[in-house]
Design a protein that fits this description.
By secondary structure, the protein is α+β, with helices and mostly antiparallel strands. Helix content is about 35%, strand content about 20%. It is built from 15 helices and 16 strands. Strands 1-5-6-11-10-9-7-8 form an eight-stranded mixed β-sheet, sandwiched between helices. It has a five-stranded mixed β-sheet with strand order 13-12-14-15-16, with helices on both faces. The chain has a three-stranded antiparallel β-sheet with strand order 2-4-3. Helix 1 packs antiparallel against helix 5. The radius of gyration is 28 Å and the shape is elongated. Pfam families: HGTP_anticodon, tRNA-synt_His.
Length: about 450
C-alpha cells in the first residue's frame, strides 16, 4: 500500500458539514456588505515579495519571521504567499487606477499564509474577510467601517465582543513619539526582554504591545502617543469617537493598541473577546493614508479591517450560534434500479422548480432494502420521502411520506401525487421549508 499523503501541518481541509458553516457565514457577510455599498475584489494569492516588504514594513514580525517567501524558478523573481489582504488590494487599486473616478468601497475573502506555530484559531493557512474604503479621508469613513463590523456581530448573534480603539496620529507625530520611546527604554534597557531589545531601534512602538508580565509596569509608564498629537489628529480621533457614541456603539480607548503593521496611522481598532482564550482578537483594522503612495499610486487615503474566519467560527461555535447544515426538502426512495429512467427526469424537474431533493446512492450490491433507505432518508433531515415503488410507478404516481411531525403545508399524511404534475406539487414540498436553527 502506498504511503498516505496528508495536508501540511497548519493547513486544513474544510469538509462537510463544517463547510456549510463557512458558506453560511460568507452569505451573511455578503448581504451586509451589499447594504453598505461594498463590492467584491479578488487578488492573487502570490504577490511580489517587495509588495509586503514595502507595504507592511521590513522590521515587522510578518516580514521578518512569518512570511512564506520564495524565488520563482523560471525567472528568479522574489515572490511571497500573501500574509494579509490590504497590501494586495491597494496594489490592485494602483495598478488598475481604480480611484480615477472617485472613492471605492471593496471587500475580499480568501486564504492568507504565515509560517508560525499552529494552534487553536491560528494556522499557517488561515482565512480572512476584509473591507477597504479607498479615497475616503474623513472620520465618518472610520466610523462607518467600525459600525459595519458591529452590525455583523449583531447579525450573527455574537456576544462578548468588545471594541478597543486608539489613534496613532500622523507620521511626524509618530516619529516624535518614537524618539521619546527610544530615549525612555534606553534608560531602562536592563529591564527589556530579548524581543524588546531587538525592537528598540527598529520598531519601538511594538514594545508597547508586549505580553511579558515582567514588563507591564515599565510599559505603562512609557511616554504616551497622545501627548505628541497635534490638533488635527486629536480632532479626527474625537470625531470618530463622537460618531460611534451617536450610534450607541460602546468602545474602550486603549492607548497601548498599536497594531503590528507599519502602514497604520490615525485610527486603529480591534474587536476582542474573552471566549477564545489567548487568541482574543477576532477583527482588527485602521487607517492607512500613506500606503497608496508608498506602493506607487497618487496619494490617497484608505481605511479598512479584516477578520479571521476561523476565529469567528470558533466564537460562534463556543456561543452556540452556528446553524445546523441545511437539510433537503425530500429524499427519493427507489426500491428497484429499473425505475431510474422514470425517476431521474422527475427529480431533475423538481430541482429545476427549486426543490432540494437527494436520491439514494446505489451500491455494487444493489439499492438496499426499503428499511435501510428510509433510515437514510430520516438521517438526512429531509421533511418528506418520495417513494418510487413498482405499484406507484405503474399507476403513474409517487408516494409522498412526511418524515417529520407538525410539518406545515397541505401534505400532513402519506399521499400520492401524479408524476405528470411535478411542477404543481413541487411547491407543496417546499411549503414551510425548515429554517436553520442554532446548534446546542
Amino acid at each position: 500500500m502506498a504511503e498516505k499523503i496528508v495536508a501540511v501541518k497548519g493547513m486544513n481541509d474544510i469538509v462537510a458539514p463544517e463547510s456549510a458553516h463557512w458558506e453560511w457565514l460568507e452569505a451573511q457577510v455578503r448581504a451586509l456588505f451589499a447594504r453598505y455599498g461594498y463590492r467584491n475584489i479578488r487578488t492573487p494569492i502570490v504577490e511580489p515579495l517587495a509588495l509586503f516588504v514595502r507595504g507592511l514594513g521590513e522590521v515587522t514580525d510578518i516580514v521578518e519571521k512569518e512570511m512564506y517567501a520564495f524565488e520563482d524558478r523560471l525567472n528568479g523573481e522574489q515572490l511571497a504567499l500573501r500574509p494579509e489582504g490590504t497590501a494586495g488590494v491597494v496594489r490592485a487599486a494602483v495598478e488598475h487606477a481604480l480611484l480615477y473616478d472617485g472613492p471605492k468601497r471593496v471587500y475580499y475573502m480568501g486564504p492568507m499564509f504565515r509560517h508560525e506555530r499552529p494552534q487553536r484559531g491560528r494556522y499557517r493557512q488561515f482565512h480572512q474577510i476584509g473591507v477597504e474604503a479607498l479615497g475616503l479621508a474623513g472620520p465618518e469613513a472610520d466610523a462607518e467601517l467600525i459600525t459595519m463590523a458591529a452590525d455583523l456581530w449583531q447579525a450573527l448573534g455574537v456576544q462578548d465582543v468588545t471594541l478597543e480603539i486608539n489613534t496613532l496620529g500622523q507620521p511626524a507625530e509618530r516619529q516624535a513619539h518614537r524618539q521619546a520611546l527610544i530615549a525612555y527604554f534606553e534608560r531602562h534597557r536592563d529591564r527589556l526582554d530579548d524581543d524588546a531589545q531587538r525592537r528598540l531601534y527598529t520598531n519601538p512602538l511594538r514594545i508597547l504591545d508586549t505580553k511579558n508580565p515582567q514588563m507591564q509596569a515599565l510599559v505603562e509608564a512609557a511616554p504616551k502617543l497622545i501627548d505628541h498629537l497635534g490638533a488635527a489628529s486629536r480632532a479626527h480621533f474625537e470625531a470618530v469617537c463622537a460618531l460611534l457614541q451617536a450610534q450607541g456603539i460602546a468602545y474602550r480607548v486603549n492607548p497601548r493598541l498599536v497594531r503590528g503593521l507599519d502602514y497604520y496611522h490615525h485610527t486603529v481598532f480591534e474587536f476582542v473577546t474573552t471566549s477564545l482564550g489567548a487568541q482574543g482578537t477576532v477583527c482588527a483594522g485602521g487607517r492607512y493614508d500613506g500606503l497608496i503612495a508608498e506602493l506607487g499610486g497618487k496619494p490617497a487615503p484608505g481605511v479598512g479591517w479584516a477578520m479571521g474566519v476561523e476565529r469567528v467560527l470558533e466564537l460562534l461555535k463556543a456561543q452556540q450560534r452556528l446553524p445546523q447544515p441545511p437539510a433537503p426538502d425530500a429524499y427519493a426512495v427507489v426500491p428497484d434500479a429499473s425505475a431510474w429512467p422514470t425517476v431521474l427526469p422527475v427529480l431533475r424537474a423538481l430541482r429545476a422548480a427549486g426543490v432540494q431533493v437527494w436520491m439514494h446512492a446505489s451500491t455494487t450490491d444493489g439499492l438496499g432494502s426499503m428499511k435501510s433507505q428510509f433510515k437514510k432518508a430520516d438521517a438526512s433531515g429531509a421533511r418528506y420521502a418520495l417513494i418510487f415503488g413498482a405499484d406507484e410507478l405503474a399507476a403513474g404516481v409517487v408516494a409522498v411520506k412526511p418524515l417529520r411531525e407538525g410539518l406545515p403545508g397541505p401534505i400532513t399524511a402519506q399521499t400520492t401525487l401524479p408524476l405528470a404534475q411535478v411542477a404543481q406539487w413541487a411547491s407543496q414540498l417546499r411549503c414551510g421549508a425548515a429554517s436553520t436553527i442554532p446548534v446546542h
